Amino acid sequence: MAEEGIDSLTCGKVAERAGLPNATLYQFFPNKESIFEVIAERWLQANVQVLEKNDPTHGQFSHWQGWIESSLDADFVTYKNQKALLPLISVMNASPALRVIEQHHDTLIKEHMKKGIRYFFKNLDEATITLLAEITMTVSHSTLLKACAANEEQAIWYLNSVKLMLNNLYLKHSF
Known about the structure:
Elements: H1 11-18, H2 22-28, H3 32-53, H4 64-81, H5 85-94, H6 96-120, H7 126-149, H8 152-172
Helix pairs in contact: 1-2, 3-4, 3-5, 3-6, 4-7, 4-8, 5-6, 6-7, 7-8
């Protein structure tokens, strides 16, 4: 996907790259969208594992800043490890079947974020918690995508900038 691009990628090219006969690949994947679906599911599952690992209700974070920074660092590694992430996200947005997977994933992300926010900010109402989760997910996702496409120095700058933005946002609600 990273080398060929989405449009020119075919099941035949995938089979050749994997060293499989076309017939074997077609037993598991009837079309290239089904291949994208498996890749998307794996990437999204990796994201959920990061969320579960960084669940503050397990007691590993004494302060919300540590939770935010640890989560962003782990998310960055997950994003960076997914080859051809930008093309995959383009496919996910263009395909109705994959869009459903992404929407389910976004719901899971927001629920995990809300759980963490509730844990650290017991005084906030549900509307504010929901808004903070939405902003956190949106800003983090778009900034991490930019960081993955950047050189190392710029990636660090993006990552530190999103940490600063989110720390300032959460700081406002910590009083």
